[in-house]
Design a protein that fits this description.
The structure is a homodimer.
Chain A (H helix, E strand, L loop, with lengths): L2 H4 L2 H12 L3 E4 L15 H15 L5 E5 L1 H4 L2 H14 L5 E8 L3 H14 L4 E4 L9 H4 L5 E7 L6 H4 L2 E2 L2 E2 H12 L5 E5 L4 H10 L5 E3 L9 H7 L8 E4 L1 H4 L7 H21 L4
Parallel strand pairs in A: 1-2, 1-10, 2-3, 3-4, 4-5, 5-8, 8-9, 9-10
Antiparallel strand pairs in A: 6-7
């Protein structure tokens, strides 16, 4: 077995974030209605687009995030594309399979078999709603990571996540649970950049954990806060950009536009990081 | 277009529950390690099993529930099986695609495209953690249904779902939300039979909604409570049995054993229903 195969995903993430110099995670989320001009709105089109995007952004990214929904929307044909795109991810890049699964233990074990076994993800995103049963089967895959949803980036996120129990919003309970139960960094948290005050608060509750921070592009989140707060003492974090790169242009220059957008995102993140000590 | 195609899934569910005389929902959840003797532990094996099970239980069932995880565990090959099994579900049976998806609106739209568009489910299960954004894209498929997770059947369910906000556990907030927002019955709730007191309480909060009640077989839930409380005034409910039927026998009699178990489950539900007036 190669050295790469026996190193934990967390170690590989740490190395790669150090190599590129910023926590840039690029989302490869092909929508058949938003492909470059001339691409067919089907499995062939999304594959051509996803592979072409991966090709130009890999140089700048610490990680890629494949949102399963964008493949699954086309059924088994979409899943075949997902398998091929995942296989094309360079081995030094950390690969998150963003499925937000969450089910009882015996079912979670099947989701883990698909996403961490069959697809060999370095990490998955998991919903906390069912409690610990829903998380443990993913951690049975030694060396992989789980990002548990804490405070998401969408407009209705606070509806349940903001409900206060014992004087603290639900998302803080999730953060405390993860921080106490998995202090070694194997479990991180999804915390949207669209709520920077909550992001700072969750960082103070869970200082050790790595955060996966979506919402900085199209959704209008705070890039500086995302970069500042994503890293934990036990694990580095990631700031995820999806639509900002994948929809940079729909013309014949789409690939160059995505490459430039990735390069600029990386530079902005490096600059944000450099200002931390100011 | 046929009359069947333009009737809502809710109307079809109501008719089918009346026809079979009980709210029996059969889970078709093939695990490669728990197939009958001689079946190969791969996509061929799970397809042979799932289709064989569907064939013998359809007569007794108001609905079938396909848990996506058990197919997805095998990647695109598993999804091909899911597509073929779904196509074999008799048109008068209500078909739930149990994926417990839950993501931001633009992503939920892609899950809806896969599960309600591509796979033509009558209903899906959805996690409430992200709030209303995560639910609405599924309801854009007119006439279909969503079962929102309220109180699940697993051992760690109460960890988050039982946290009290404003003096009421989180699952009651989900029930109140669904009852007030969708009083017409298009949205139902998943409420485990393993917590009969909570089931009764949620029924009182959401009298109109149909409940999908898992947990009565292997998980040890209360069948009589499940049958008593699953139906709402705006929509009928369903009581789901999976492992109790699919693992009735692993011998050469597996199909007959599953058929007998389905028949007996239906009879027990009819009897439980008959005692409601006592």
């Amino acid at each position: 077995m190669s050295e790469l195969a026996v190193r934990s995903s967390l170690d590989r993430l740490r190395d790669r974030v150090a190599t590129v110099g910023a926590p840039l995670c690029v989302g490869i989320d092909p929508h058949p209605d938003r492909l470059p001009d001339g691409f067919s709105p089907d499995a062939n089109g999304i594959e051509r687009f996803a592979r072409g995007l991966l090709e130009v952004v890999s140089e700048y990214a610490a990680a890629v995030k494949l949102n399963v929904a964008f493949y699954e929307a086309l059924g088994s044909a979409g899943w075949r594309v997902l398998e091929r795109v995942r296989a094309e991810v360079p081995p030094d890049l950390f690969c998150i399979l963003d499925g937000k699964r969450g089910d009882i233990g015996s079912t979670a074990e099947r989701y883990a078999a698909g996403l961490l076994g069959h697809l060999s993800g370095d990490a998955v995103t998991v919903s906390p709603y069912l409690g610990e049963d829903a998380v443990e089967p993913f951690l049975a895959y030694t060396g992989r990571m789980v990002f548990l949803l804490a405070r998401t980036s969408n407009p209705s996120a606070a509806q349940l996540q903001g409900l206060e129990a014992d004087g603290r919003p639900l998302f803080e309970h999730v953060a405390t649970w993860a921080a106490e139960r998995w202090p070694d960094g194997r479990v991180g948290l999804v915390v949207g950049a669209t709520a920077p005050a909550e992001l700072e608060r969750i960082r103070s509750i869970a200082p050790a954990l790595g955060f996966l921070v979506p919402g900085v592009g199209e959704q209008g989140g705070d890039l500086a806060a995302a970069v500042r707060y994503c890293h934990g003492t036990a694990a580095p974090g990631l700031v995820s950009i999806s639509r900002g790169l994948s929809q940079a242009s729909t013309g014949s220059d789409w690939q160059e536009a995505a490459r430039v957008a990735a390069k600029e995102a990386l530079e902005r993140m490096r600059e944000a990081d450099a200002t931390l000590g100011v």
